[in-house]
Amino acid sequence: MNPPSNLSSDDWRRIARLLFDLGVHIREGIRADQRKHPNADRSSIHRVTQADTIYEIDRVSEESLLAWFEAHWPDDYPALVIAEGLGDEKGILFPRGFSTAQITILIDPIDGTRGLMYDKRSAWMLAGAAEGSPQTSHAPTLSDLRAGAMVEIPTRRQQISDGICGWVLEDGSYFSEAVRSHGMQDPVEPLDLFPSKARDLRHGFASFSSFFPEGRDEIQRIESQFLQKHLPEIPSDTPLVFTDQYISSGGQLFELLSGRDRFVADVRPLVFDRLSLPRALSCHPYDLASLSAAFAYGCVIEDPWGQPLSAPLDTTSPVAWVGYANNELARILRPLLRETLIEQGYTPQ
Predict the structure, then answer these.
(1) What are 267-296's pLDDT values in tens digits?
(2) Which of 12, 98, 207, 214 has its CA 20 to 30 Å from the CA of residue 184?
(3) CB 207 within 8 A of CB 244
(4) Predicted local confidence at residue 305, as pLDDT
(5) 3-state DSSP call for residue 46?
(6) Where in the chain is the domain with CATH 3.40.190.80?
(7) What distance in Å separates the CA atoms of residue 283 and residue 281, rounded to the nearest whole number?
(8) 3-state class (DSSP) for residue 295
């Protein structure tokens, strides 16, 4: 049970907007580095951590993140900041000088590094905040996130960048603000986003994450059986369901809340445990730090068994998750996915 909240919706709104400003700062830092070093090899490995491989482009975002917190995080919300690349799973407390954190902030400075460093597809800055910290009696989980932001980090071939911040209201619902930036042009413009209202997956995008060769055959068996349960006419003369391997969990969330995708399932942790594959190949909590933005648009994000996401706010725990564009899709597809997993030998958790 969560402790009583000491933060109002106005506080969460302010925190969400601060995290959005952080995302813009990181985006512009990367753009500046791209202009200054147009021929740099951003795909070279900077170092390897428990969470992931840190490439040279990640180094730029880490420096931007630390500089922003040093300069801009207010005394009002002492925060334990946990982020990929900071090197210490215990996190860093901001502002400096505080001994106890009121909130925990989870950040992925660049989610989708691999696509961005080869200039293939946008990456995203993801950040989320929850009340409490591991230092207190209440260590928050993904389901406790109350404010978040995601900011697109575009390839060098594009100028447009979208961004969202979302926060919880007093009644437990969520509110969001979305904007579009046109590069050097100001001001930004409001952005209207609408998840799909479809009640099935026919002629829409629905994907099971299999970003790497490891575990792909097993994941595809699950995907095939699930889709045939939902659409018995598969295989058909005309493709009925399209797939998109966007190597960014934040990017997948954005595709859901913007109406481009209807369903995303990332069951890699289940498959990898069965096949004794490294957990580092899975999605981690910081990859889902912007959950508040998805909730604000009515998307349903949960674990493969239909339960709230309960992973701790860290950069190493494996997270299996499923995203539905709307409640009706969740109602229809949730039991089919559960049934498929059980038939494939997976045990409900």
Answers:
(1) 999 999 999 998 888 999 999 999 999 999
(2) 12
(3) yes
(4) 98
(5) strand
(6) 204-343
(7) 7
(8) helix
Distance, in Å, from the CA atom of 160 to the CA atom of 182, rounded to the nearest integer, reads 5
Q: Top-level CATH class of 204-343?
A: alpha beta
| 198-255 residue pLDDT tens | 999 999 999 999 999 999 999 999 999 999 999 999 988 889 999 999 999 999 999 9
Distance between CA 153 and CA 137 in Å, rounded?
36
Let me know how long the chain is: 349
User: Can you tell me the distance from the alpha carbon of 116 to that of 126, in angstroms, rounded to the nearest whole number?
Assistant: 15
| pLDDT in the model for residue 54 | 58
C-alpha to C-alpha distance for 24 and 32, rounded to whole angstroms:
12
324 DSSP β-pair partners: 263, 300
Question: Which one is predicted more confidently, 130 or 238?
Answer: 130
Q: Is the peptide bond before 95 cis (omega within 30 degrees of 0)?
A: yes
Within 10 angstroms of residue 233's Cβ, the number of other Cβ atoms is 10
Cα 191 to chain centroid distance, Å, stands at: 19
What stretch(es) of the chain map to CATH 3.30.540.10?
9-190
Count other C-beta atoms under 10 Å from residue 44's C-beta.
11
Q: Is the pLDDT of residue 44 over 90?
A: no
Q: What CATH number should be reported for the domain whose range is 9-190?
A: 3.30.540.10
Q: Per the structure block, which two tokens stand in for 235?
A: 């295989």
pLDDT tens, position by position, 162-197: 999 999 999 999 999 999 999 766 678 999 999 999
